Protein 1
Amino acid sequence: MAPFVKPSEAELERRRTIQINDETVTNISSTDFPGHYPGEDNSWSFETFKNTFRVEHHYLTPAESSFSLIGADAAIANALRRILISEIPTLAIETVYVYNNTSVIQDEVLCHRLGLIPFTGSKKGIREFLRWRRKAEDGTPGPVYDYNTVQLRLQVECTRNPSAAPDEREPTKLYHHAHVYARDIEFVPAGRQADLFQAPEDIIRPVNPDILVAKLRPGQVIDLQMHMHKGVGADHAKFSPVATASYRLLPTITITRPILGRDADKFARCFPRGVIALERVSAAEANTPGSGYEGHEGEKKAVVADPMKDTVSRECLRHPEFEGKVKLGRRRDHFIFSIESTGQWDSDELLLEAIKTMKKKCERLEKQVINMVR
Amino acid sequence: MSREAYQVPTGSQAANPAAVGKSFDAYGGGAAEVGPQMQYLCGDCGLKFQMRRGDAIRCKECGCRILYKERTKRMVQFEAR
Ligand SMILES: [Zn+2]
């Protein structure tokens, strides 16, 4: 068999760039699979992946993180994104027992709002002690124990504030409990939960205590109990551990011919701040024949400073003075992830948990494939 | 069922045995007195008061003729979805 052909670096660059033209997006499908280019070896190899795959961290806070996966296929990046959104378990309010609700907000709407409030508490308690609530054999919800249910209570009554100023108009000053906030929800420990979820660090509590749940007027009452269970985002969005987990491809901007003087200013204004920088044409550049800078020494020229900040608005393609001078694109294998946590997990834990989940799923699939060929 | 056997449902506390913790003013008192008695809310001034059968349908404070019944204290279960 003839030895494999190696494509040139320029050809590889062309293959991994998605072209963004003024009205179309082309070269969108990846072609790095065996048999697409005759004579090339495009079979997947773990060694090559290990050597080329990189992760770059951009910023990290408990609530939000951003990082790049470089050298992975879209299938891997998208699998991670989908696992983040819908397969990492969290604890959320699932059943509400309403004893009284004389507020203007209907029972159904109130319960729906309660379900969407993100809660947090002892990580060990939520992840290791709390388990799924199993279904009974006939498919009905199974029994409730301290290891699969967390009980909460919300009891608020609105009353007049006798010490309010006579000309007061502000309801929150005129009445007590005119606003019901997420912080008014109390944790009711059952069994071993009293030891596991202790105030103030480990108690089950809303992540954002200032979420407005309902508004009340004097004489109105909300009295209800809630049961929390573990669930996944695939079942209901309230169980999703992320507010959003998304990725975008790294934008590329290639200036093919010099953009100088006033045009350079205009070009920089076509992009978000920081994407394009302005530099002076150096003497060496001006003295190089064929560079396009001849006789322009000291003039301003546009250079690409940070394409990651670009939103790919394509504004620069609308102006005739930049025609044929710039090429926009996106790097096919560079995924800029952004994970925003709802608070039960830290954003960095989420990525690790997603990878763990994906690994588990792959192991399950591997077993099935082995069974299939047996 | 004869007319005499029929009992007007009372808004008493017995309907809410699972309620725990504090009790609210808004719940009003029970029907401790003899005979069917209901809690009513005035549509005008918001006063809560009890009325018996045969009483004039009027607020005891302001005389308003529009009265509301209180919500039942029976538990209602919802899914938070
Ligand atoms: Zn009245």
Protein 2
Amino acid sequence: MFTSILHNETQKIFKRRLAILLLAVTAVVIMMTFGEFYLSGSAHKTWQDNVNNKIADYQRIVNGQAPSEWEGKLPTPDEAKMQIQVLQYHLDNNIPINGNDAGWFVADTINKEMALLMVLLIAYIAAETLAQESGEGTIKLLMTTPVSRWQVTLGKYIGIMLTATIVLAYTLFLGYLADGILYGFGSLSQPVILSPKIINGSIDMTASSHMPLWQYILSGTLLNWLSLACVGGLGMLFSALLNNSGAAIGATLGTVIGGQVGLGVIKATWPNYLFWKYLTPASNLPIDINIPSGTQVSVAMAVVVLIVWALIFITSSMFVFEKKDILA
Amino acid sequence: MNNNIPILEARNLSKTLGSKTIVSNLCFKVYPGEIYGFLGPNGAGKTTTIRMLTSLIFPTMGDVYINAIKLKENREGALKNIGCIVENPELYKYLTAMENLKQFARLKGQTNEDYLYNLLVKVGLPNTADQKVGTFSLGMRQRLGLAQALIGNPKVLILDEPMNGLDPQGMKDIRDILISLAKEDNMAVFISSHLLHEMQMIADRVGIINNGKIIAEDQVSALLSDKTLSLKVDEPERTLALIVNSFNLNGTIKNGEIQLELRNGIEMADIIRLLASRNIDIQDIRMVDQELEDIFFRLVDNETSYLDKRVEGVR
Ligand SMILES: Nc1ncnc2c1ncn2[C@@H]1O[C@H](COP(=O)(O)OP(=O)(O)O)[C@@H](O)[C@H]1O
Ligand SMILES: [Mg+2]
């Protein structure tokens, strides 16, 4: 019987929302690849240009000349020295870091910069589901069929996560293709050095933790999928609580964005246990050559926190909807 | 199936929303093969009751039994026996008629496409299987809603004002379908309406609900036994007094016209003879169709006596 519910719920959300979601991410990806390519003219920076710029930045920290607008937690001069060695190692051995080719575009731009857009899109469609059926009155016929309410709630949630998975996979594929056409596909097995070990002034690859680029990409995508599972659950909860999809969408997006803005200014550690901290978790993956690097939160922590909150949200939405008077 | 055992029963059903009691202490039984009309003006509590019968909302007090299964204790088991429309038949506009039927058919464990197509034909929607429901008129959606309710051949049909939005031919079609389901397939049909004449044409029994309470339950014919005569004369007050004194009838004056309730075998002809013998000019005289409101006013006035007359489970 649950397979029937799943069949129904996926049919509804696919028919209703899949095309528009794919269209939206297509537009964004095309803008970020072809749009940027033609706007920036011939001045395409190579990864070596970027790395050289970063080395120059770190050098200013070593020399005590860091500009005052670099707020946050700056690396110490010693850390900066080490970063310079790491970056130099990449240059010397021709190991790209944040390169232009397709693999790096996916690992960096799609997984890190586009993650928040995905979060908002999935929060939106999750907030719609039950509330939209209430608003349009279809919930009345649906809930008089001989199936239990919690199964319908769960079926809707799984439908949303299937949609999220398809959109995520499609975005990766499209981004890889578009960037590859413009800048080349590069190699997906090139190494990504996560935590370099420096021995006698050079990086010891056997002691450093590293993984091939494709694995780095997949880890980021999986992490992002967990944050979608979390906001999807949050959206379902508001959807179960409210009878109007506009209200549910507003409450969900307000919570997601408001929480992130609000927590950004808090310096305590307790926000580390809240899901907002990990809404774009792929950004927490190491290999961040940006200055300042800020406090890195561990990936394991992100995984645990996101899973726990997703479970809390989805069980509470099932509970809320199970007991609710349907007065739509 | 034993036709003397109720297939749908409400026991002391009550619902309070906020501080407002919307339905209180409702009791009724519906038997297989019977069409039970649930009659009441707008806002009487018909939809609220139907929401409780179909487990969309939970009673503040009381119980619903479907096929002798207590809804509260075995929700899915009880719901297996019903098909329903609650208020307007809101279906998925972005799906076709057939896709909509399949949505419900899957959940009722009945997915044979030929079977569903025959249901479409039965409710008068052939050749619409692949049409998006968003393009349907209200009447077509009522028909599709009925097809949806019929999936799996339920023992009880619960329909909330299913004639809304239908043209006269549509009403007749639906009426014929419902009568055949009850009489030939022994289905119990619980149908709500605010239109008396509609119930007159279809229901075996009606329960009349007003302000959340059942104020009468009987055969339609029994409820309609009184006839009303409308009479227009020059001096209505004096004429009314004359008639009341001569025949011991009840009457009122509404919009300058006398409204008389005919009883005890007194006919229109008797009134005409009386007025002619007194040389009173009759400008207009006719029998009036009783409106539900008229029956209500009378019932509400005599609420207690009607409830006394009512016998539980009279067939
Ligand atoms: N969600 C609600 N909250 C409070 N009162 C309601 C709600 N829904 C309906 N009512 C009230 O309950 C009464 C009965 O409504 P309803 O059952 O829809 O009547 P009917 O179907 O007979 O027209 C009405 O007075 C209506 O205003
Ligand atoms: Mg109603």
